[in-house]
Design a protein that fits this description.
Radius of gyration: 40 Å
Mean pLDDT: 78
Order of helices and strands: HHHHHHEHEHEHEHEHEHEEH
Structural class: alpha/beta
């Protein structure tokens, strides 16, 4: 019996072992290959967000504009200086429409002319000439009155002055235009518009951003220049303005351009040190090329205050021409006469509005005819 029991146990063990060997082996878990890590690169943490690389858009070229020819710009003068907008024109046309030119009418006209910044002296001259030519008893022919008024206004404004811009130098040198004026006259904007006038006339131009004290001045000038494809020489903010002007003239010489236009800081005319610096800029420029034109920008809406500015600037630099900015509906217009008499130099350019081509050569006939236009 014991032998039988042993035989049964051995048989059972054999059967169990055989079944285990017959079962398939369990699948092994595959091992993922380790990512190679460069020893020079840090391993990003699991929580770090992936960096998104965004391509920078290519800069778009600025479209170069074709400025309006200066000869066509005065077509807008009649509308801008019409009697509906301008007190000077309203006073003149009031004289023409009066039924009787009595003492009160003459007094009203005199007050209007003085208020319009014509000045006491020119007003007396105009009133005297009109009273002499027109009927003193209070009756007048409107057509005759208008003709006399036009003739006397042209005499006051002046028709013989040379109002051309000297924008080319002699002996192959570029012309150098120095533009000066106090803060707020629209000087930098005027220079931008002047560059359009010069380009429209076929000149090659370089601008000098020598107003290094006003942070936005150089950027403003750059914007204007890019619209007509004109280069700008600029320096660091707060840098030496004379150095910027010198470099611009040097660039003009090396590239053979026709004219270099120099912007200056809108310096207050009461600041003696700043005025001395303006004189320095002119002297430094003339080491390279003569300054052919010094334009003084005056805000036409400031009236008689513009005369005070003109006097001080004329003592520092030889002003050769005047630019009257903002000579539109808000201006009085009469300042043209006394400012020319004060400096002995002509008004050469007038700003007619805020448009890019609203800077035009000053023409006495067009100016007077616009003042006397009925609408």
């Amino acid at each position: 019996m014991a032998a039988v029991a042993v035989v049964l146990v051995v048989a059972a063990i054999t059967i169990v072992v055989g079944r285990r060997r017959a079962l398939p082996a369990p699948p092994s878990t595959p091992e993922l290959p380790a990512s190679p890590v460069s020893p020079a690169e840090p391993v990003p943490s699991a929580a770090a967000a992936p960096t998104e690389v965004v391509a920078e858009p290519a800069p778009q070229p600025v479209a170069v504009e074709t400025p309006e020819p200066p000869s066509s710009r005065l077509a807008r003068l009649r509308r801008r200086l019409s009697a509906s907008n301008n007190p000077f024109a309203r006073g003149l046309l009031g004289l023409l429409s009066a039924d009787r030119l009595d003492a009160e009418a003459w007094e009203d006209l005199e007050a209007t002319l003085i208020t319009a910044d014509l000045g006491v002296g020119p007003t007396d001259e105009l009133i005297t000439a009109l009273r002499r030519e027109l009927s003193i008893d209070g009756t007048s022919d409107p057509a005759k009155a208008k003709d006399v008024l036009r003739r006397e206004l042209l005499r006051l404004v002046g028709t013989d002055a040379d109002r051309s811009l000297r924008v080319t130098g002699a002996g192959g040198l570029p012309g150098v235009v120095l533009v000066v004026g106090v803060n707020g006259t629209g000087k930098t904007t005027t220079i931008g518009k002047l560059s359009r006038v010069l380009v429209a006339d076929g000149h090659s131009v370089v601008l000098a951003a020598a107003d290094t004290f006003r942070a936005a001045a150089a950027d403003q000038l750059q914007t204007w220049a890019s619209r007509v494809g004109v280069p700008v020489v600029r320096g660091p903010e707060g840098g030496d303005p004379a150095s910027v002007a010198f470099d611009a003239v040097e660039k003009g010489l090396s590239e053979g351009v026709d004219v270099v236009v120099v912007d200056t800081a809108g310096r207050l005319h009461t600041k003696t040190g700043l005025m001395d610096e303006l004189g320095k800029i002119k002297r430094v420029i003339e080491r390279k090329a003569p300054v052919t034109e010094v334009l003084l920008v005056i805000d036409a809406t400031t009236g008689q205050n513009g005369l005070a500015q003109a006097r001080v600037f004329a003592e520092v630099v030889d002003v050769t021409g005047i630019v009257l900015s903002k000579l539109d509906g808000s201006a009085k217009g009469g300042i043209v006469v006394p400012v020319q008499r004060e400096l002995g130099v002509p008004v050469k350019l007038i700003g007619l509005g805020e448009g890019p081509d609203d800077l035009a050569p000053f023409e006495p006939e067009g100016f007077v005819d616009a003042l006397l236009a009925e609408s």
